[in-house]
Design goal:
It is built from three helices and five strands. By secondary structure, the protein is α/β, with parallel strands linked by helices. The protein has a single domain, classed as 3-Layer(aba) Sandwich (Rossmann fold). The longest helix is centred in the N-terminal third of the chain and has 14 residues. InterPro entries: SAM-dependent_MTases_sf.
């Protein structure tokens, strides 16, 4: 499952629901790629500070710890998390994650 520029626009409750749905459609061992708006990244903070409030279509910012919590509680194993890179448009604002549904024995 590939989700880019989706989770940056939805709130925490919708993120939780969507991650649970993603896990349900993945086969054991299946992977997903998800992008989140990272409040702790330099460009993420700049965009957040210019945004007066959350609105549908606006950005909803989270921290890496919140992302880990949502993914783990939705039943995913986290395989890879991006690092901030101020020279990259997306990595200076977003947190990119690869996770997978555990194999049957890991559930």
């Amino acid at each position: 499952v590939y989700s880019f520029d989706v989770f940056v626009h939805i709130d925490l409750h919708q993120m939780r629901h969507t991650l649970r749905c993603m896990r349900a459609i993945l086969k054991p061992g299946g992977c997903c790629f998800v992008a989140f708006a990272n409040l702790l990244a330099p460009a993420g903070w700049r965009r957040f500070s210019r945004q007066k409030r959350y609105s549908v279509g606006g950005f909803y910012f989270v921290s890496p710890d919140i992302v880990r919590c949502l993914l783990l509680r939705a039943g995913f194993e986290i395989l890879r998390v991006s690092e901030v890179d101020v020279d990259n448009t997306y990595l200076s604002r977003d947190l990119l994650v690869v996770a997978r549904r555990p194999l049957e024995g890991g559930e």
